[in-house]
Specification:
CATH architecture of chain A: Orthogonal Bundle
CATH architecture of chain B: 3-Layer(aba) Sandwich
CATH class of chain B: Alpha Beta
Structural class of chain B: alpha/beta
Strand order of the largest sheet of chain B: 8-9-10-5-11-12
Number of helices of chain B: 7
Structural class of chain A: mainly alpha
Largest interface: A-B, 33 and 41 residues
Number of domains of chain A: 1
Strand content of chain B: 15-25%
CATH superfamily of chain B: P-loop containing nucleotide triphosphate hydrolases
Number of domains of chain B: 1
Strand content of chain A: under 5%
CATH superfamily of chain A: ABC transporter involved in vitamin B12 uptake, BtuC
Number of helices of chain A: 15
CATH topology of chain B: Rossmann fold
Oligomer: heterodimer
Number of strands of chain A: 0
Number of strands of chain B: 12
Order of helices and strands of chain B: EEEEEHEEHEHHHEHEHEE
Distance between the termini of chain A: 16 Å
């Protein structure tokens, strides 16, 4: 796809912003640490206090990396969904993917009690959370997709996605009703979303899943561009629609599923970031949009996390609430300004 | 038409078009037979709902025929892979591009898809073909506009430019002149005529513009409820 101009400068600015957001995110937190001490702790130097070193290396750094992975991954999965469903309102959240993941996790956490002590403990390891969440989101997306083969109208499809979301939410309610307070609290905390609870081992798993998902997205760049013309045109240009759809779905469920497992359901990033990016990068070419959306998502998530951290206080707000608080007004602002959401 | 370049590009052999669903099969035509030679401009006419679009969709392999076979350059349509077909045939449909945010240049360059590598990078010769298609359709001035900023007539020309960029011997167009005023209807059909003469493309288009089609087409396919037949121009 031939594009109007080179976007090198845009990317340099984005990467600079990412670096700034990264260092601010690491520099700010409940404990005030001088910036030069932060840097020295980060790059393996000696800090004047060993507790600072621990805070930076074992709490803030993994949290920032999780934010980058989660923000970038969710934003990319939103872009994929918008192109696949040819609908500007599509995203991992709107189509019930996140609720699918929450259903998987609900079955795991709330259902673990049914299996009792030892087995229940085994089920709650970090791997099983990922698997349950990814499985849940994959199943919901599969259901939405199987319906999409019958229903051609994308608006109908969105409503069906919302319905799937309602059904999963209802099942989660029923599960909650029969579970004890402890399990319920665990599930509610998961649904708040948190970036700070991921261990280095967890980050390894998350990175693996996100990179796999991104890899699948990158090899789908060409078919994604063709899909901008619609399925019939894409097919007439030799694109294998079934294979492409499968790849995009696998990529989305890997990204959204693994991120939701580790960080909880994080709303609006997937929907809002692609639109924000399109304001700055005035192209539809996925070769440019995909990396741009990836970086923008990471920046937005770092900023949201910095806000959620409430610097210098001991409180941390749920990240899910912050992304909605920032994301929803942005979408409204876009709609009011352009009167139309294009993709 | 000279007899020397009577190379058959598109041939329909006893095809019956229609739809199949779980419950029943609806055929909307008797068996259709025709063959189209290289460099011909063919108008496809018939009343609303007679099956013009269905015929075009069947020829473009977007839906299967109920019976019979279609040959493109002597290859059976059924044996061609999507990519092989993309090298033989390009289409212009009545549907607008799904993304209205595409720029004209981006849209036209998408036509090179069957020839580019896995990431879709364009070579010098690709860029050259894109520029030629933009010149041939006279849309240089629109190059950097977005699709939602275009009028129906402009968008139609852009879609034709994309089909040209795909550089196939055969182009199918579904009602390229709908929603256009007389000036643009004439200019689009004239453009198609030029393409058949200059670049030896074979073009099949459906239309309700019988007057213009009679004047410009080399042959016409007429669809009636009883029969589908190919008429040859008598000068």
């Amino acid at each position: 796809m031939e594009t109007q101009k080179s976007y090198k400068l845009h990317f340099i600015i984005l990467l600079l912003l990412l670096a700034i957001a990264f260092f601010i995110n690491i520099g700010l937190g409940s404990v005030s640490i001088p910036f030069n001490e932060t840097l020295s702790a980060l790059f393996g130097g000696e800090s004047s206090k060993s507790s600072w070193e621990f805070i930076i290396q074992d709490y803030r750094l993994p949290k920032a990396i999780t934010a980058i992975l989660a923000g970038g991954g969710l934003a990319v999965s939103g872009l994929l969904m918008q192109t696949l469903f040819r609908n500007p309102l599509a995203g991992p959240f709107v189509l019930g993917l996140s609720s699918g993941a929450s259903l998987g996790v609900a079955f795991l956490i709330l259902g673990a009690g049914l299996f009792g002590g030892a087995l229940g403990g085994l089920l709650l390891s970090s791997w099983s959370l990922v698997i349950a969440s990814a499985l849940g989101s994959f199943l919901v997306l599969l259901a939405v997709l199987s319906v999409s083969f019958k229903v051609k109208d994308t608006m109908t499809l969105l409503i069906i996605g919302l319905m799937f979301g309602s059904v999963t939410a209802a099942i989660v309610s029923v599960l909650s009703y029969f579970s004890n307070a402890e399990q319920l609290q665990q599930f509610v905390f998961w649904s708040f979303g948190t970036l700070g609870n991921v261990s280095w081992q967890g980050i390894l798993i998350l990175t693996l899943c996100v990179f796999l998902g991104l890899g699948l997205s990158f090899i789908s760049i060409k078919p994604l561009n063709a899909l901008l013309l619609g399925e019939n045109y894409a097919k007439s240009m030799g694109i294998n629609i079934k294979k492409t759809t499968l790849f995009i779905i696998l990529a989305t469920s890997l990204l959204a599923g693994s991120i939701t497992a580790f960080a909880g359901p994080i709303a609006f990033v997937g929907l809002a970031v692609p639109h924000l990016t399109r304001q700055y990068f005035t192209t539809s070419n996925h070769l440019i949009l995909l990396p741009a959306v990836l970086i923008s998502g990471a920046i937005l998530m770092l900023v949201c996390d910095t806000v959620a951290q409430l610097p210098f206080t001991e409180f941390t707000l749920p990240i899910n609430a912050i992304t909605s608080l920032i994301g929803a007004p942005v979408v409204i602002w876009l709609l009011v300004r352009k009167r139309k959401l294009l993709f | 038409m000279n007899s020397e370049n009577k190379h058959i590009v598109l041939k329909a052999k006893n095809i019956i078009i229609g739809y199949t669903s779980k419950k029943k099969t609806v055929s909307i035509s008797e068996s259709i037979n025709f063959s189209i030679n290289k460099g011909e401009l063919i108008g496809l006419v018939g009343t609303n709902g007679i099956g013009k679009s269905t015929l075009l969709r069947t020829l473009a392999s977007m839906q299967p025929s109920l019976k019979g076979s279609v040959f493109i350059n002597e290859n059976d349509l059924e044996n061609l892979s999507p990519l092989e077909l993309a090298n033989e045939l390009s289409i212009v449909l009545t549907e607008a591009p799904a993304s209205a945010n595409l720029s004209v240049l981006e849209l036209v360059s998408l036509g090179r898809h069957p020839y580019t590598n896995w990431i879709g990078s364009l070579s010098e010769s690709d860029l050259d073909i894109i520029n030629k298609a933009i010149q041939a359709t006279g849309i240089e001035a629109l190059k950097h506009q977005k699709c939602f900023e275009l009028s129906d007539g402009q968008l139609q020309k852009v879609m034709i430019a994309r089909a040209l960029t795909q550089d196939t011997p055969l182009i199918l167009l579904d009602e390229p002149t709908t929603h256009l005023d007389l000036y643009h209807r004439a200019s689009i059909l004239k453009l198609l005529k030029e393409l058949t003469i200059k670049s030896k493309k074979t073009i099949l288009f459906s239309t309700h513009e019988i007057d213009l089609a009679i004047q410009l087409s080399d042959k016409m396919i007429v669809m009636t409820s009883e029969k589908v037949f190919l008429t040859v121009r008598i000068i």
